[in-house]
Amino acid sequence: MIDIHCHLNFHSFEKDYEQVIKRAHNAGVTRIINVGTKIDSSEWAVKLAHEFDNLYAIVGVHPHHADKIELSNTWLEELRKIALEKKVIGIGEIGLDYFSYKSNGIVDPALQKEIFSLQIELAHELNLPLQIHNRHAGEDVIKMLKERKNLLQNIPGMFHCFAGTMDVLKDALDLGFYIGFDGNSTYKGLAPGESVSLSEQIAYTPLDRIVTETDSPYLTPLPHRGQRNEPAYVILVGQHIALVKNKPFEQVVEQTTKNVYTVFSRLQ
Ligand code: NI
Q1: At 195, which CATH number?
Q2: In angstroms, what is the span from residue 221 Cα to ligand 1's centroid?
């Protein structure tokens, strides 16, 4: 299986990322893709990709950090330079986030949109697919993508850690995006602010449009919820998808792996 979105580039893995990578390998995870959320974490994702054969990087600025990036007028230049490094396979996680965080509330939506738009243009310039972050902003994300359809690749990318209404899911699929599901799909009940369960959305999404991820260190699947998440647990996400779709686990592994290579053509 492939973990197409995690953050071994974050502090919580600083001390033991080598063991974490080994455990994932032993569990049958063939590729691990670390994703940047700022310039420094993007650089670190690339550094890890250079250090380990099976690791790759997706680089970008998360909407939640749009207010910090504003302080530097060279961020886009810096990001372009990082994105040109070997083993960078996409631009992400980029998008919109209207969730109010304890640390800095909701970053000015106009600023988020500007940072998102500039990165869509960068991805277009570099022929890289997008990895989209959306939290409580599905309609605006879809609207922005539709308005920039001419900038999207044939297979435009994926929505990471999908959450949102069925309309947003349908629009994302119509635009050609693949859909990433994580360990939170194993949780019972609805997440706050959501109207439809992730399992229902897994059931709706064709298997040939699903990709698997962990978002480690967050969103740890059952039965490990409460502990730090790690890429080895992407297997549990695959098992949950197999259960929901009533398909053999091996078929889910084979198809979702194939899907990742379809979206991210630079992955080897
Ligand atoms: Ni993430």
Answers
A1: 3.20.20.140
A2: 15
Q: For residue range 10-64, what is the model confidence (pLDDT) as tens digits?
A: 999 999 999 999 999 999 999 999 999 999 999 999 999 999 999 999 999 999 9
pLDDT at residue 179, as a whole number: 98
- Asked, for residue 165, whether it belongs to a domain, the answer is yes
Please tell me the distance between residue 35's alpha carbon and the centre of ligand 1 in angstroms: 7
What's the total number of domains in the chain?
1
| Span 175-187, pLDDT tens digits | 999 999 999 999 9
CA–CA distance, 99 with 106 (Å, rounded to integer): 6
For the beta carbon of residue 228, count every other beta carbon within 10 angstroms.
14
Residue 142 lies in a domain: yes
Q: What is the pTM of this model?
A: 0.96
Question: Which of the 8 DSSP states describes residue 73?
Answer: T
Q: Could you tell me the residue range of the domain that residue 56 belongs to? A: 2-263
List of residues 6+ apart from 171 with CB closer than 8 A:
142, 146
**Rounded distance from Cα 101 to ligand 1 centre (Å):** 15
What CA–CA distance (Å, rounded) separates 13 from 126?
30
The answer to whether residue 8 is domain-embedded is yes
In 48-159, at which residue ranges do the beta strands (DSSP E only) sit? Answer: 55-59, 88-97, 130-135, 157-159
Residue 29 alpha carbon to ligand 1 centre in Å? 18
Other CB atoms within 10 Å distance of the CB of residue 108: 12
Q: Is residue 268 part of a domain?
A: no
Rounded Cα distance between 193 and 56, Å, is 33
Contacts for 259 with CB less than 8 Å, ≥ 6 apart: 178, 208, 209, 210, 211
Are 22 and 16 in contact by the 8 Å Cβ rule? The answer is no
